[in-house]
């Protein structure tokens, strides 16, 4: 499988000629120029990603990465750690929101264990466990630099395998109790804002726990001193195994010239790390929705991405990305199935 370095080397700029041709194609369809708004922007982006003026995203895969977090011991989550494997089993059995939305979008769901605490096994769980969850970032690095690279490369490997099987649109989802804490730490290292403006309630913690969560994140930043210019260092020092694997999915998708949906706050933290590893990756990203987590809008702004949906969601799992799969496919269907002015016998001016 491609290494992180090989993957970075494979990521190229979008193809401008294809984007220009796609714009001309859109302008000839039976509608005023630009009247489909963001759908036209997506169609042009997809043309640049794929190099085709007839891009197809019919085959879609949601890669759900799962891992636990030692920082949960600091009381930063409303739920106990054992919920991670319980929810992963729910994913596998098809009973979670991500399964419902992916079925509706006719998308495949793949669940990968990169760091669940315990020896949870299931025939339908892809086993790629690196370690039994990250270490407590409030006391030191969550993982070593090499472990972070390994987690990223697992994401790259999974993206590679899905593309080889025909996936034309990928989403990166996650499950990991406590993972808004490392995500907030990643964002805080990248932005000059008070923690109070970017740290949210995650799974629903109350005021006292929120104050503690902010204290824990500040302690993690003070102890670890992550380098915001080095995405791997960010992930190793204050990130999570599943967040690093999501980063790898994004890099792997771009290396194969495949678009990747960015979900909510956790996914945006992974996207920030990916952009620090290889700035050329961000044009391959499509922002799905605006999470209720306060840090999400700041992360998207840093990435230069605009979300399509505003649904007051904060579930994670990849749910916002799964909902947005429909819109991305709609953009390609409009491009291919609408008549031109000439074909429809409609006066264009």
UniProtKB/TrEMBL annotation:
<dbReference type="InterPro" id="IPR023195">
    <property type="entry name" value="Nict_dMeBzImd_PRibTrfase_N"/>
</dbReference>
<dbReference type="GO" id="GO:0008939">
    <property type="term" value="F:nicotinate-nucleotide-dimethylbenzimidazole phosphoribosyltransferase activity"/>
</dbReference>
<keyword id="KW-0328">Glycosyltransferase</keyword>
<comment type="similarity">
    <text>Belongs to the CobT family.</text>
</comment>
<protein>
    <recommendedName>
        <fullName>Nicotinate-nucleotide--dimethylbenzimidazole phosphoribosyltransferase</fullName>
        <ecNumber>2.4.2.21</ecNumber>
    </recommendedName>
</protein>
<dbReference type="Pfam" id="PF02277">
    <property type="entry name" value="DBI_PRT"/>
</dbReference>
<feature type="active site" description="Proton acceptor">
    <location>
        <position position="317"/>
    </location>
</feature>
<comment type="pathway">
    <text>Nucleoside biosynthesis; alpha-ribazole biosynthesis; alpha-ribazole from 5,6-dimethylbenzimidazole: step 1/2.</text>
</comment>
<keyword id="KW-0169">Cobalamin biosynthesis</keyword>
<dbReference type="InterPro" id="IPR017846">
    <property type="entry name" value="Nict_dMeBzImd_PRibTrfase_bact"/>
</dbReference>
<dbReference type="InterPro" id="IPR036087">
    <property type="entry name" value="Nict_dMeBzImd_PRibTrfase_sf"/>
</dbReference>
<dbReference type="InterPro" id="IPR003200">
    <property type="entry name" value="Nict_dMeBzImd_PRibTrfase"/>
</dbReference>
<keyword id="KW-0808">Transferase</keyword>
<dbReference type="GO" id="GO:0009236">
    <property type="term" value="P:cobalamin biosynthetic process"/>
</dbReference>
<comment type="function">
    <text>Catalyzes the synthesis of alpha-ribazole-5'-phosphate from nicotinate mononucleotide (NAMN) and 5,6-dimethylbenzimidazole (DMB).</text>
</comment>
